[in-house]
C-alpha cells in the first residue's frame, strides 16, 4: 500500500563519523555523536555560535520540512485563523487582591504579550507595572520569568529569558516611577522578598543547575551579595519562595523523589537558614506555615499516596511530626494550602481531582468537598496570596468546557463564577462528547483514557485519532479544555489522552510502576490505549497519529519501535530519545537528577541494560515506520537539540518504508517553542496539518 504521506526525494543524509564508548563490557557505537557541538553551552545562549557543519545540516532538514509541508501552507493559515478566532484578544485576568492593591494581567487587541497593571483595592486609577510587549519589542524570543512584588508594594522584581535557553536576567523596578533600578542580576532562578530592602534569589550555574541562594540588599552592588545556601549535590535543584503567611522565606532543595526544606524568618533575614528535616532517601516533603505550626505534605512512614502532618515551629524536625490527615491508599494528596483559619488540599483518585477543606481546629473527619458533575474534568488551584482570608479561588475545565474561574467562600460553601473563558468565534459544548474509558494494558492494568469527539463523528472505526501521552516524573495529564484541539475534532478526529503509568492519575503507585526497569509499562499502556480505541470502533489500525513532547517524546519513540503498524503518523516534540547516551553523561545539566527516575547506568549494569533495552535511538531497526514530524530547539537546555537530530539521522538510513520523516529545528528558541500567544499557534498549526496529511485527509 502506498504511503499516505510519501517522502520527498533527496532527503538530507547526515554524514557518519563513528565513535565508540565502552560501559560494563558493552561497546556502544554512535555514528552521529558529532552533532553534539563541543561549544553547546555557548550555542545555547547564542545560537549563532553553533558550528557551521551542524548548523548547515539542521538548516537542510528545515528546508526539507518546508518542501514536504509546502502544500499545507494554506491549511496552516486557516488553522491559525481558526485558533486565533477562539482567543479573546482584549482579555484580562480576574483581579488578585493583595494588600492595598488589586493586580491584573491584561491583553489588548493584537498583543502577543500581556501588561501587568494594578489599581487601588477599592477602585481608582490603574498603573502599568510591566508592558511585556514593550520589553519584547526587539526580541525574536521573550519569556517573562518571575514577577514578584515586594511586601510593601514599592518594588517589583522581574526576570526574562530572551533566547529560550532559560537563563533569566533579573531586574528590579520602582513601582511608582516605572523605572528599573541600576541592578541587573544574571542567570537567576526563583526569587523572594523578605522586606522592602532584602531580596533572596537563586543563581543558576554554567550547567544550568540552580544551586546557590544569595541575599541582595537594594542599593548595594551585586558583588556584595551574601551566599546564604549552596547545594553541593549535583542531583539536587534549589528553589525558594515567600510563604503565604509572610513569616518565612522557604528554601527547597531536592530531586524528583527526595526533598529538603530550610526556612529564614522574614523579620530577621540575616538569620542562617533553619533546617526542617534532613534529606533522606526516598522521602519527600513540602511545608506550609499556619500560626504556631508547619503543615507538612509528605510520603514519610510509607505514605505512598502522601499524608499531611503537623509540627511546632520551634521543633519542626521529623521526630516531632504528628499525623493530621492520614494516608489513604489510592487517594493521592497533590497539594495543600494554609490560610490563617483554613487548610485546603487537592487530592486525586481514579484520575479525577477534588478540592477539600477544613477549618483550623475542626476534626479532619469533618472536612468538606467541592463537587463537580462531569465524567472527566480538570481543576486548577489559584489560592489567595493573602493569608487572612476565607475565599479560595480555583479554575474548572473539561475537554468540552472552557475554563471557568470561581471564588469559593469556605465558611458559607457558596461559589461565585468570576470568569468564563470566552470563545469569540463561538463554542457550543453540546456539539462535543467527553468520555472516560478504561484500556487494558499488557499486564491487565486498567489505563484511563479521556476522549473528545464531535457529536457528528461516526464511531465505526472510520475516524482518525490523535492519541496523546506523557507518562513520566509523576506528571498527571488533566482532562482540560483546549480551544486549539477543536480544529482537529471539528474535522472528524477523535482526540484521546492516555493517562498512562509514569503519571500519578491513579495514585503514587501508578508512577512507581513505571520507574527504573518498569519503564516499559508506560509504553505498553500507551499501546493498550491505542488497541482499545481500535477495538471499540473509535478509530482503526493505521489511522492513529501519536503525539508527545520531551519525556512524552521518549514515549513516542519507544512506541514507534515497538508497534509502528498501529500508526499513521507520529509527532515527537523536542523528544528525549537518546536516553542511554544522555543518562550516561553526568556533565549534562539534568542528568544526575534523572538517575532517580531511570537508574544510574554509569554505576549499575542493571540500569544500563534496562535503559539500553528501550532507548529509542538505540533501538531503531530496519522496519517500516509511519510518517514522522520531529522538532528540536537549539537553545533547549532540557532536551538538547542533538537528541532529535541524531535520532532522525539514524532513522533515515535504517528504516525500510517510503513515509516522510521530517526534522524541524527552531534555530532561535528552546524547549517551549515560540513565545507569544499568537506566535505559538504556528507550532500547533504545523502539527495539526501534519496529522491531517498523515491520515490521508485533503490538505489543499
Automatic annotation (TrEMBL):
Tagged with keyword Protease: yes
Cited InterPro entries: AB_hydrolase_fold, Pept_S9_AS, Pept_S9A_N, Peptidase_S9_cat, Peptidase_S9A, Serine_Peptidase_S9A
Domain of life: Bacteria
All copies of domain Peptidase S9 prolyl oligopeptidase catalytic, residue ranges: 480-696
Entry keyword set: Hydrolase, Protease, Serine protease
Domain Peptidase S9A N-terminal: 13-419
PANTHER family in UniProt: PROLYL ENDOPEPTIDASE-LIKE, PROTEASE FAMILY S9A OLIGOPEPTIDASE
Family: Belongs to the peptidase S9A family.
Protein's name according to its UniProt entry: S9 family peptidase
Amino acid at each position: 500500500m502506498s504511503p499516505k504521506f510519501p517522502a520527498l526525494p533527496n532527503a538530507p543524509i547526515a554524514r557518519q563519523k563513528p565513535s565508540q564508548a565502552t560501559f560494563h563490557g558493552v561497546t556502544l557505537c554512535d555514528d552521529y555523536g558529532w552533532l553534539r557541538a563541543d561549544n553547546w553551552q555557548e550555542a545555547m545562549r547564542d545560537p549563532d555560535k553553533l558550528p557551521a557543519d551542524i548548523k548547515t545540516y539542521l538548516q537542510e532538514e528545515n528546508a526539507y520540512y518546508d518542501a514536504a509541508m509546502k502544500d499545507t501552507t494554506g491549511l496552516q493559515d486557516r488553522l491559525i485563523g481558526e485558533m486565533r478566532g477562539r482567543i479573546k484578544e482584549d482579555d484580562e485576568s480576574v483581579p488578585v487582591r493583595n494588600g492595598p492593591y488589586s493586580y491584573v494581567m491584561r491583553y489588548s487587541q493584537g498583543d502577543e504579550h500581556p501588561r501587568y497593571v494594578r489599581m487601588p483595592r477599592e477602585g481608582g486609577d490603574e498603573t502599568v507595572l510591566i508592558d511585556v510587549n514593550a520589553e519584547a519589542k526587539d526580541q525574536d524570543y521573550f519569556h517573562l520569568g518571575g514577577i514578584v512584588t515586594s511586601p510593601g508594594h514599592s518594588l517589583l522584581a522581574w526576570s526574562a529569558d530572551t533566547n529560550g535557553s532559560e537563563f533569566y536576567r533579573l531586574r528590579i523596578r520602582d513601582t511608582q516611577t516605572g523605572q528599573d533600578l541600576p541592578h541587573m542580576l544574571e542567570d537567576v532562578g526563583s526569587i523572594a522578598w523578605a522586606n522592602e530592602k532584602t531580596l533572596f534569589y537563586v543563581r543558576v550555574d554554567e550547567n544550568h543547575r540552580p544551586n546557590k541562594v544569595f541575599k541582595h540588599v537594594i542599593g548595594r552592588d551585586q558583588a556584595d551579595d551574601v551566599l546564604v545556601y549552596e547545594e553541593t549535590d549535583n542531583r539536587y535543584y534549589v528553589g525558594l519562595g515567600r510563604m503565604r503567611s509572610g513569616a518565612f522565606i522557604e528554601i527547597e532543595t531536592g530531586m524528583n523523589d527526595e526533598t529538603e526544606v530550610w526556612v529564614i524568618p522574614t523579620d530577621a533575614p540575616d538569620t542562617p537558614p533553619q533546617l526542617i528535616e534532613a534529606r533522606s532517601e526516598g522521602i519527600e516533603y513540602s511545608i506550609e506555615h499556619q500560626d504556631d505550626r508547619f503543615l507538612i505534605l509528605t510520603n514519610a512512614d510509607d505514605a505512598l499516596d502522601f499524608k499531611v502532618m503537623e509540627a511546632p515551629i520551634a521543633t519542626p524536625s521529623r521526630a516531632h511530626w504528628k499525623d493530621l490527615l492520614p494516608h489513604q491508599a489510592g487517594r493521592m494528596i497533590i497539594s495543600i494550602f494554609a490560610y490563617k483559619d483554613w487548610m485546603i488540599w487537592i487530592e486525586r483518585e481514579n484520575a479525577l481531582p477534588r478540592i477539600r477543606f477544613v477549618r483550623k481546629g475542626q476534626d479532619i473527619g469533618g472536612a468538606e468537598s467541592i463537587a463537580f458533575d462531569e465524567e472527566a474534568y480538570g481543576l486548577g488551584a489559584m489560592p489567595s496570596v493573602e493569608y487572612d482570608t476565607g475565599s479560595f479561588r480555583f479554575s474548572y475545565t473539561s475537554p468540552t468546557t472552557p475554563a471557568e474561574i470561581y471564588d469559593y467562600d469556605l465558611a458559607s460553601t457558596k461559589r461565585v463564577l468570576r470568569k468564563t473563558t470566552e470563545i469569540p468565534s463561538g463554542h457550543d459544548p453540546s456539539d462535543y462528547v467527553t468520555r472516560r474509558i478504561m484500556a487494558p494494558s499488557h499486564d491487565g492494568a486498567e489505563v484511563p483514557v479521556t476522549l473528545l469527539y464531535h457529536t457528528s463523528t461516526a464511531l465505526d472505526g472510520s475516524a482518525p485519532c490523535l492519541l496523546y501521552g506523557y507518562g513520566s516524573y509523576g506528571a498527571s495529564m488533566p482532562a482540560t479544555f483546549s480551544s486549539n484541539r477543536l480544529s482537529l475534532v471539528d474535522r472528524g478526529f477523535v482526540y484521546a489522552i492516555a493517562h498512562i503509568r509514569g503519571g500519578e492519575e491513579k495514585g503514587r503507585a501508578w508512577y512507581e510502576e513505571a520507574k527504573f526497569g518498569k519503564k516499559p509499562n508506560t509504553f505498553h499502556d500507551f499501546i493498550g490505549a491505542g488497541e482499545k480505541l481500535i477495538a471499540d470502533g473509535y478509530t482503526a489500525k493505521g489511522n492513529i497519529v501519536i503525539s508527545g513532547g520531551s519525556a512524552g517524546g521518549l514515549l513516542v519513540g519507544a512506541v514507534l519501535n515497538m508497534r509502528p503498524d498501529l500508526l499513521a503518523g507520529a509527532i515527537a516534540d523536542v523528544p528525549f530519545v537518546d536516553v542511554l547516551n544522555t543518562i550516561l553523561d553526568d556533565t549534562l545539566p539534568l542528568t544526575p537528577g534523572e538517575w532517580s527516575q531511570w537508574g544510574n547506568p554509569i554505576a549499575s549494569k542493571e540500569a544500563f541494560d534496562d535503559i539500553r533495552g528501550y532507548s529509542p535511538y538505540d533501538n531503531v531497526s530496519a522496519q517500516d515506520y509511519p510518517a514522522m514530524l520531529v522538532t528540536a530547539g537549539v537553545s533547549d537546555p532540557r532536551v538538547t537539540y542533538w537528541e532529535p537530530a541524531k535520532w532522525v539521522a539514524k532513522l533515515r538510513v535504517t528504516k525500510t518504508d517510503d513515509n516522510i520523516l521530517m526534522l524541524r529545528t527552531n534555530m532561535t528558541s528552546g524547549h517551549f517553542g515560540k513565545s507569544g500567544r499568537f506566535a505559538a499557534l504556528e507550532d500547533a498549526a504545523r502539527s495539526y496539518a501534519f496529522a491531517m496529511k498523515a491520515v490521508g485527509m485533503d490538505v489543499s
